[in-house]
Amino acid sequence: MELLLTGGTGFIGTALTEVLREAAHNLTILTRANHRSTQGCRYIQSLDELTADTRIDGVINLAGASLAAKRWTNAYKQEMVASRVDTTRALVRWMREREARPEVLLSASAIGYYGQHGDEELAEDGSVVPGFAQSLCQQWENEALQAVELGVRVCTMRFGVVLDSGGGAMVEMARPFSFGVANWMGTGHQWLSWIHRQDVVAAMLFLLEHPVLSGAFNVTAPQPVTSRGFCDAMKRHQRTLITAPVPAFAMRLLVGEMADELLLSGQRVVPAALQGAGFKFAYPHLDAALADIL
After folding, report:
1. In whole angstroms, what is the distance from residue 122 CA to residue 196 CA?
2. CATH node for 2-168+194-220+269-288
3. pLDDT digits 0-9 by tens, 69-82
4. C-alpha atoms less than 13 angstroms from C-alpha of 9 in its C-beta half-sphere
5. pTM summary value
């Protein structure tokens, strides 16, 4: 396939790019940075560089400023919204202007779509609880779904916490354990819906290759854990000397609003749609994932 990819230079995008190229797909990657194009992979900095006769069979939209990169000031909130909502809107506008439209749009979202639900298990039809992250994800998905009116198959992918070596959330989550300190944040009873990066990439290929699939998909492992459960699993793989949880008030002082929205609360999400479609996880359990990563 001829694929257009946004966010292709990020933590998920780099792994996806490697696998897509191995599968002989041709990639056009939209990025703000300068990169040298190679055989089967070219980089562009604007959609205007795609001429009317440029064939694009599918679009994978992973663009978005990290929710956990900075304190949530009003300015950074605007950046997070613009990098997701505005980019997705621009992609759909570009599709609308083309005579030959892509067959499929895989568009990133996140399990923050559901808001805070405590211990409630959430499949794709789960209810929502309002909040900044919830509103952001809903706007993001709504923009992607505009492509349905154009005859494009749309899959919105609600990512959990993506784990792997070399980047992503694992860098910060594993740091105290590398110094012999086991910890969790707040009560530790909040749910962590995680997924190995290899399964994220495999899920995206699965959605690309099954044209009957559309709608929302929770891209999370089938067995979420609590923050304390993650700590226990890490202790089985790394030698620790002490256990020192980080109090909720300290997290609020350090990162402000982000603490309550992302770190001290969570969602107990299950990948009902993916499993119902027959997708098989390489790492359904956290212990196996950590054994591979660490």
Report:
1. 19
2. 3.40.50.720
3. 889 999 999 999 99
4. 16
5. 0.95
Q: Provide the residue type at 94 as one letter.
A: W
Side chain identity at 3, as an amino acid letter?
A: L
pLDDT at residue 219 is higher than 90: yes
Between the CA of residue 245 and those of 135, 231, 236, what are the distances in Å? 30, 10, 17
What would the pLDDT profile of 248-274 be if each residue is shown by its tens digit? 999 999 899 999 988 999 999 999 999
Instruction: Count other Cβ atoms within 10 Å, centred on residue 231.
Output: 22
Maximum CA extent, the chain:
63
Token pair 């982000």 is at which residue? 258
- Tell me the three state secondary structure of residue 154: strand
pLDDT the model gives residue 183: 95
In a 3-state reduction of DSSP, which class is residue 57? Answer: coil
In angstroms, the CA 127 to CA 261 distance is 17
- In terms of Cβ atoms closer than 10 Å to its own Cβ (0-12, 13-18, 19+), residue 174 is middle
Query: What are φ and ψ of residue 186, in 5° steps?
Result: 65, -135
In tens, the pLDDT along 82-129 reads: 999 999 999 999 999 999 999 999 999 999 999 999 999 999 999 999
* Phi, psi dihedral angles at 194 (to 5 degrees): -110, 170
Per-residue CA distances from 26 to 52, 62, 94, 98, 248 (Å) = 17, 17, 19, 19, 47
Q: Which of 165, 147, 279, 163 is nearest to 218 (CA)?
A: 279
Angle at 226 between CA 221 and CA 232, to 5 degrees: 100
Mean pLDDT for the chain overall: 94
Q: Which helix (H) or strand (E) holds 208?
A: helix 197-209
Q: With H, G, I as helix, E, B as strand and everything else as coil, classify residue 203.
A: helix
What pairs with residue 159 in β-bridges? 110, 219
Length of the chain: 294
